[in-house]
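Exercise 4. Each item below gives a protein and its sequence. For each, produce the structure-token representation.

Item: Adenosylcobinamide kinase (Mediterranea massiliensis).
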Amino acid sequence: MKRIVLITGGARSGKSSYAEKMALSLSPTPVYMATAHIWDEEFRQRVIRHQQRRGPEWTNIEEEKYLSRHQVDGRVVLIDCVTLWCTNFFFALNSDVDASLQAVREEFDRLTRQDATFLFVTNEIGCGGTSENEIQRKFTDLQGWVNQYIASKADEVMLMVSGIPVKIK
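Answer:
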């Protein structure tokens, strides 16, 4: 049953909606792992909108970093999102790209040892210009390398463009 799907794209490209529909097509009772840390009230409202979009068929797990501590064998699991997950490690590890990359890779490997279907939602933040901000450049590097790592392990990679899924792998 083990399967890894990476769904990537820009902001508001339809990644989460697509992933939710895919999860529901694979299981009547999928798991939603939300990695968000609530930074401010505007972000809290975004999270609430996401939560309200999902129905009672979902098992919701709020987990900022250590996804592998949850047993999901035999389940369909949507992880939304890798970008926020990376952010949590990046800030906890004082913007150290190497340490963050190692921590995310190790946690990804621990999680995906379980026999489950994993749908990872992530952002393609490296498609724009190069930031003048050093921290943003470091995070863009981290995000790009994490996306490449997950894509290398994925059975399928989908790129969302204006709400349209484009199969990459």
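Check: Helices lie at 15-26, 41-53, 82-92, 97-111, 134-153.
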